[in-house]
Amino acid sequence: MQVTLTNQPLTAIEADALFVLQFEAEGRPDTPSYAAVRAANPEWIDEVEKSGEAKGRLFETTVLHRPQGFRAKRLVLAGAGKSDKFDSATLRRLVGAAVRKAKANGCAMLALALDETYATDDFAAAVAEGVHTGNHEVDAHKSKKDERTELVEFRVVTAEKPDHLQEAFFRGNIVGEAQNFTRDLANEPGNILTPAVLVERTRHMATLVPGLEVEVLDKDRMTQLGMGSLLGVAQGSVLPPFLIIVRYKPATPSTSTDHLALVGKAVTFDTGGVSIKPADGMEKMKYDMAGGAAVLGAMMAIASLKPSIPVTAYVPTVENALGGNAQRPGDIVTSLSGKTIEVLNTDAEGRLILVDAIEYAKRQGATHMVDVATLTGAIVVALGHIHVGLFSNNDAFRQQFQASAARQGEKMWHMPLDDEYREYLKSPFADIGNIGGRYGGAITAAYFLKEWVGDLPWVHLDIAGTGWLDDNKPYMPKGPSGVCVRTFVDLAINWTVKS
Ligand code: BES
Ligand code: MN
Ligand code: ZN
């Protein structure tokens, strides 16, 4: 299903439901589409406004069956909130919520009126993304699916149909589908999505979009290279580990030497290892590969949208399990860079697999690096489930990155990374310890990574609190969120940093 654009008159649109935005505003002039609804159905509008049935509050929907003067079977006033707060992120969610509601009510053919003010590239792409992410269900493993109508069509009605809007829809379709690919991966349980299966899924994805090259380092190769930090985590599991590398190269090489590396943690299940996690809620640790999944989803979209800079993904994937050969607290491992690590807690495994991938990415010529990981419970304590924790060693690159996040409506909070935190990671027996003690846990985890990153312009994202929705939202069901995919794609497409 692709979201399409049409400039037919609103009244001529045939659909099961035609959505028209209703803003929360008294005494303000009607938008053109709302005015058209009022003109043809004045008594209905009068009644729902006066009775307070339709206030225009965000996610509210008010339905009129068989409206006068319209071909559509239903007119739906879609509450859009206050117009001064209305942005593309709000529209994305509103559209997702509208789709979810319509599917539950037997509607398969949908349309949305997009007035001139909102007929911009950002809003258009957001509509397409919202349709895909709202339409996506997490019922892949249910033999009996919930009663829902399958969405067949979603058309956006604008006054004109310029090329740039068509392209924005094309982009939105691709990015929305990529975000769903990420969500599907993150939702797979640990018995189904093992490291080897993640390799397979990556290879399969690369056959669907042209222009990606996949290379996979296996255990022998990693042993040969000396990735002792990653291998130490993997040794407790019977499942072999891998380092997945996915390369995108622009057709015409750019004049700059910039090369973006995206590094994503993919622990297919995190028991904590010998420093075992409590049983309560441990099932959620199947999404401990959400960072890797976000990176792979972004690559899928990047291959189709063809930015002008090369982008390479590095996804270290292991299971953090217990077994007779599992790593012990106190073990000392030697990472690829030669730095030694005292493993004080086997549950701080994400950083251990990331640093070998980071070192490898540096050797492969990365000039800028973004890593993303469900890294710490501490970031959830600090920021809840609202903001991604963002850390960086380079202001120019960070600002560039945050501009992408802001455009994509993905909330990210800049966290501190002062050198004083290095103290917390001291080990009497090795170059560094893998935990920093009780306080500032998200920061010490980020600082640990920085020890390997060095001066390379870098952004670290901790998505432990945002990679998974604990409750159903009007615009998305409980489960993996696919956070960061949109920002990564935006960063690559709008690349301006120059090395
Ligand atoms: N995968 C977890 C972090 C996590 C916690 C992700 C909650 C999603 C939700 C990570 O590997 C971990 O276990 N971190 C430890 C680090 C600690 C031992 C220093 C943590 O946060 O408790
Ligand atoms: Mn852990
Ligand atoms: Zn983990």
Provide a quick synopsis of the model.
This protein is α/β, with parallel strands linked by helices and 499 residues long. 35% of the residues lie in helices and 19% in strands.
Account of the 3D structure:
35% of the residues lie in helices and 19% in strands. The protein contains 14 helices and 20 strands. Strands 7, 8, 9, 10, 11, 14, 15, 16 and 18 form a nine-stranded mixed β-sheet that branches. The model has no long low-confidence stretch (mean pLDDT 96). Bound molecules: ligand BES, manganese (II) ion (MN) and zinc ion. Manganese (II) ion (MN) binds next to loops.
Looking at this protein, list some descriptive labels.
binds ligand BES, 499 residues, nine-stranded mixed beta sheet, binds zinc ion, binds manganese (II) ion, alpha/beta, elongated, 14 helices, single chain, six-stranded mixed beta sheet
- Secondary-structure-based class equals alpha/beta
Low-confidence stretches: none
Instruction: From the alpha carbons, calculate the radius of gyration and give it in angstroms.
Output: 24 Å
Overall morphology: elongated
Mean of residue pLDDT? Answer: 96
Largest sheet: 9 strands, mixed
**Which range does the strand content fall in?**
15-25%
Set out the fold topology:
Layout: E1 3-6, E2 17-22, H1 32-40, H2 42-51, E3 61-65, E4 74-79, H3 88-104, E5 109-113, H4 121-135, E6 153-157, H5 163-187, H6 195-208, E7 212-217, H7 219-225, H8 228-234, E8 242-248, E9 260-264, E10 266-270, H9 290-305, E11 311-320, E12 331-334, E13 340-343, H10 350-363, E14 368-373, H11 377-383, E15 388-392, H12 395-407, E16 412-414, E17 432-433, H13 441-453, E18 458-462, E19 468-469, E20 479-480, H14 485-493
Parallel strand pairs: 1-6, 2-4, 2-5, 5-6, 9-11, 9-14, 10-11, 13-17, 14-18, 15-16
Antiparallel strand pairs: 3-4, 7-8, 8-11, 12-13, 15-18, 19-20
Helix pairs in contact: 1-2, 3-4, 4-5, 5-9, 8-10, 9-14, 10-13, 12-14
The chain binds ligand BES, manganese (II) ion and zinc ion.
